[in-house]
Amino acid sequence: MKNLDFDWKPLALAPLLALMVMPFIGSTSSWVTLTVAGLAMGMIIFIIASGLTLVFGLMDVLNFGHGVFIALGAFVAASVLGTMGDYTASGSFWVNLLAVLPAMLVAMLVAGAIGIVFERFIVRPVYGNHLKQILITMGGMIIGEELIKVIWGPLQIPLPLPEGMRGSLLLGDAAIEKYRLFAVLVGLLVFGVLLWILNRTKIGLLIRAGVQDREMVESLGYRIRVLFIGVFVVGSALAGLGGVMWGLYQQSVTPQMGAQVTVLIFIVLIIGGLGSTTGALVGALLVGLMANYTGFLVPKAALFSNIALMMAILLWRPQGVYALSK
Amino acid sequence: MNENVLTLQGVHTHIGAYHILHGVDLAVPRGKLTMLLGRNGAGKTTTLRTIMGLWRASRGKIEFNGQDVTALPTPQIASMNVAYVPENMGIFADLTVKENMLLAARGARTAQQMDSQRLQWIFKLFPPVEKFWNHPAGKLSGGQKQMLAVSRAIIEPRELLLIDEPSKGLAPAIINNMIDAFAQLKASGVTILLVEQNINFAKRLGDSVAVMDNGIVVHAGSMKQLAEDEELQHSLLGLAL
C-alpha cells in the first residue's frame, strides 16, 4: 500500500488562485496568457529554489549567496550561446536546442564546480550559526558578483532568445510565448527527476531522512556531510540552470540578477515549507502566478502581493504548506 | 577476543558550559545484557551519546573491541556494527516503516535486497512492523514506534546495541512484549547496553548492571546481586527493586 495520507490541499492552491483571479482579468485570452507566463516564471523560480530548500532542510544552512550561481549560470550561457550563432540564428526550435542544451549543461557544470568551492570555504566554517551564515554567504555573493564583473564586465549583456524560440503559439485568442511553454516543460522535467531521485533511490531516501533528523542518519552509519556537499553542488548547478532560463526569459543578464531574485526565492521556500521539494513547487507556482496577475492588475503592488501571499499562507500553515517533521 | 565488547575509562563529557560526565568507568561484557540504571540526570543518556560520538568525550578513553573509538565520528562508530536507539526513538516520521528499515539496512539499495530471513525474524518479534510496512512511521503509536526503532537497530547483525529507555511512556502490555523481544534478542547472542528506569525491565532482563549518579558509575556488578540486596538498592537508587 502506498502512502495514502498525502496532503493534496496545497496542490489546489495554484489552480484556485488562477480561477479566483479570472473574473478580474476581464478577457479569457489575457487570463490564459498571464497564467502561462506565471507558470513559466514559477517553474524557473522552482528550478532555482529546489536546491536551496534541500540545503536548508538537510544542514540548516541559510545560504543567501545562492543568487551568485544564478548570475554565473546566465553569464556562462551567454558566452556559450555567443559562440553558437549558427545554431541560435536558425528558425528551427530543434536546431536552437542544440545550442541551448550545451549552454545549460556548461552553466550547470560551472555553477556546480563553484558550488564545491563555496561550500568548502564559505559555508563549512559557519555550520550551526545562522547569523554568521547570512553575513558570510551575502559576502560571498558580493565577491561572486564582483568576480563576474571582472570576467564579463559590469554592464548588462543581452541574451536574446534563439530564433526558433521566439514568437507565440495561438490558443484561440490567447497568445502563448513558445519560450514560456519551454520553461514550463523544463521545470516539470526537473521536478520529475528530483521527485524520482528523492522517492525512488537510496540517496533520495537519505536526503529525506537527513532533512528530518540528520543526527539519526549519522547514527545509522551514513556521513551526512558528504551527502550535504552533493546536495549543495546539485543545488548550485540547478541555480545555474535557473539562471540560464531566467536570463533567456529576461533576454538580458546582469551581475546583480541573482540578488534580485533572492527575495522571491526565500518567499517561495517559506511558503513551501523549508526542506520540501513539492512545497517549493507549490510556492514557486503561487509566486509566479501572483507576480503576473498583480503585474497586470495592480502593477505597483507586484512585490507586496507576494509578501501578502506569504503572510496569508503562514496564517493558514505557520510552517509552510508542506512542513516536515523534525 | 576481549571479554568485554566495550570499555569506558575515566570518560568526561562537557555539553557547552556543563560538565555532565565526571569520569565514567564501565565495562560491557560480550553477549550479555547490561543495564545502566540511575536517577534522572545521572548521566545515562549522555553516556550512550558519548559512546556513539554524538557528544565528544573531553577526557578519558572509549574502546570497542579493543580499538580506541573516543575520537571517531558517529558514522564510523555505527559502521563497526554498533546500533543506537535514542530516547526519542529517532523515527523518520515522514518516511514509511519500510523506508525507515531500508535506511538502516546499509547493504541494501532496495527493500527487495534486505535480508528476508532476518526480516521475517523481526516480523515475528514485532508484528506491527509488518502490519504497517507501507504506512508513514509518524502515524504509528508510541509502542509501535519503539518496536520500529528497535527493529531498525537489528535489521543487520550488530555487535552492540545501545538502547535508551525503550519502555518510556509505553502501556504495560506493550512493555511485556518488549521484554519478550529483548529476551529473544539476548538469546541470539548480541551484546546490549540498555538504559532503563522500568524496574521490571531491569530485573527480568539484566545480566549485569551499572548504576550511575552525578555523572559517574557508583556501582557495577551482577543484576541478580542488586535485585537481591534491598539495602544496596535503597542506597543506590533510593528504592527497592
Summarize the structure in words.
The complex is a heterodimer of chains A (326) and B (241). Chain A starts with 12 loop residues before the first helix and ends in a 10-residue tail after the last helix. Chain A is globular and about 60 Å long. Chain A has 13 helices and four strands. Chain A is mainly alpha-helical. In chain B, 37% of the residues lie in helices and 28% in strands. Chain B contains ten helices and ten strands. Chain B has helices at residues 44-52, 74-79, 97-104, 116-125, 127-131, 142-154, 172-187, 199-205, 223-228, 230-237; strands at 4-15, 18-29, 33-38, 57-64, 67-68, 82-85, 160-164, 191-195, 208-213, 216-222. In chain B, helix 7 (172-187) links the parallel strand 7 and strand 8. Classes of the chains: A mainly alpha (326), B alpha/beta (241). The interface between A and B is medium-sized, with 24 and 28 residues.
Category from helices, strands and their pairing of chain B: alpha/beta
Overall number of strands of chain A: 4
Low-confidence runs of at least 5 consecutive residues of chain B: none
Quaternary structure state of the chains depicted? heterodimer
Radius of gyration of chain A: 19 Å
Strand order in the sheet with the most strands of chain A: 1-4
Specify the overall morphology of chain A: globular
General shape of chain B: globular
Instruction: Give me the CATH architecture of the largest domain in chain B, please.
Output: 3-Layer(aba) Sandwich
Instruction: Find the CATH topology of the largest domain in chain B.
Output: Rossmann fold
Provide the helix percentage of chain B: 25-40%
How do the strands of the widest beta sheet of chain B line up side by side?
6-7-8-3-9-10
- Distance between the ends of chain A: 24 Å
Helix percent band of chain A: over 70%
- The string of secondary-structure elements of chain A, in order, is HHHHHHEEEHHHHEHHH
Distance between the termini of chain B: 34 Å
Q: What is the CATH domain class of the largest domain in chain B?
A: Alpha Beta
